[in-house]
C-alpha cells in the first residue's frame, strides 16, 4: 500500500473516530464510512488490517489520555481538592508557605524555575519581593535529592538543644 494512500486512510479514519459516538460505532461502520468518503474499497485484507491498526491506535491514545486525566484529578484531590491557582504574573502557585511566602513555578527566559519567595501587597496586588530564591530544574532536583540529609541534620540539631 502506498504511503500517500495510507496517510489519506489514516486521516479519514481518525476524523471519523473523533466525530463519532464511540458507544455506537463499530470497526465495520468506520471502514464503510471511510470507503465512501475516499471512494476506495477498504474491505480488502491489507486495507482492513490497516484500518484496524488505526482504530486500535486511536483507542489506545484515548485510553492514555483518560488515564492521564484521572491521574491529574487524583493529584488535585490529594492536594486537598484545590484547583490550580495562578498569580498576577501567570505563574503557577504550588503552595503558600505563609501569608507572605509562596512556592511558584514560572517560565523565565525559556527556563522553568521553582521560586520560593516573599510577597508584598501594593495597590491591592500581591507582588514578589527580592527576598527569595529561584531554582532551575537541575538545582531543584539536586535540592530534592538532599532533602533527607537536611531533615536528618535538623533532627540531630534539635536533639542537641
> Strand fraction band?
15-25%
Q: Based on helices, strands and strand pairing, what is the structural class?
A: alpha+beta
**Anisotropy-based shape:** elongated
Task: Give the fraction of residues assigned to helices.
Answer: 40-55%
End-to-end gap: 78 Å
Q: How many structural units, i.e. domains?
A: 2
**Strand order, sheet with most strands:** 1-2-3-4-5
> Uncertain segments of ≥5 residues (pLDDT<50)?
none
Written as H for each helix and E for each strand, in order along the chain, the element string is HHHEEEEEHH
Mean pLDDT: 89
Counted beta strands: 5
Round the Cα radius of gyration to an integer and report it: 26 Å
Main sheet summary? 5 strands, antiparallel
Number of H/I helices: 5
Summarize this entry quickly.
The chain is an alpha+beta fold and about 160 residues long.
Polypeptide structure, described:
This protein has helices at 3-19, 27-38, 45-78, 137-145, 147-160, and strands at residues 85-86, 92-96, 101-108, 111-122, 125-136. The mean pLDDT is 89. By secondary structure, the chain is an alpha+beta fold. The protein starts with a helix and ends with a helix. Strands 1-2-3-4-5 form a 5-stranded antiparallel sheet. The radius of gyration is 26 Å and the shape is elongated. Helix 1 (3-19) crosses helix 2 and helix 1 (3-19) crosses helix 3 (45-78). The chain has 2 domains: 3-78; 85-160, Transcriptional Coactivator Pc4, Chain A (Transcriptional Co-activator pc4, Chain A, Roll), CATH 2.30.31. A hairpin with a 2-residue loop joins strand 4 (111-122) and strand 5 (125-136). 53% of the residues lie in helices and 24% in strands. The longest helix has 34 residues, at 45-78. The protein contains 5 helices and 5 strands.
Amino acid at each position: 500500500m502506498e504511503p500517500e494512500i495510507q496517510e489519506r486512510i489514516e486521516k479519514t479514519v481518525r476524523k471519523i473516530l473523533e466525530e463519532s459516538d464511540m458507544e455506537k460505532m463499530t470497526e465495520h461502520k468506520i471502514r464503510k464510512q471511510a470507503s465512501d468518503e475516499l471512494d476506495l474499497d477498504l474491505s480488502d485484507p491489507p486495507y482492513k488490517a490497516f484500518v484496524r491498526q488505526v482504530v486500535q491506535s486511536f483507542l489506545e491514545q484515548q485510553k492514555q489520555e483518560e488515564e492521564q486525566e484521572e491521574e491529574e484529578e487524583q493529584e488535585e484531590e490529594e492536594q486537598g481538592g484545590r484547583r490550580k491557582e495562578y498569580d498576577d504574573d501567570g505563574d503557577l502557585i504550588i503552595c503558600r508557605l505563609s501569608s507572605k511566602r509562596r512556592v511558584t513555578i514560572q517560565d523565565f527566559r525559556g527556563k522553568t524555575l521553582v521560586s520560593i519567595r516573599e510577597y508584598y501587597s501594593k495597590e491591592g496586588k500581591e507582588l514578589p519581593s527580592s527576598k527569595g530564591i529561584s531554582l532551575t530544574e537541575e538545582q531543584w532536583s539536586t535540592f530534592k535529592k538532599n532533602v533527607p540529609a537536611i531533615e536528618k541534620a535538623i533532627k540531630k540539631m534539635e536533639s542537641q538543644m
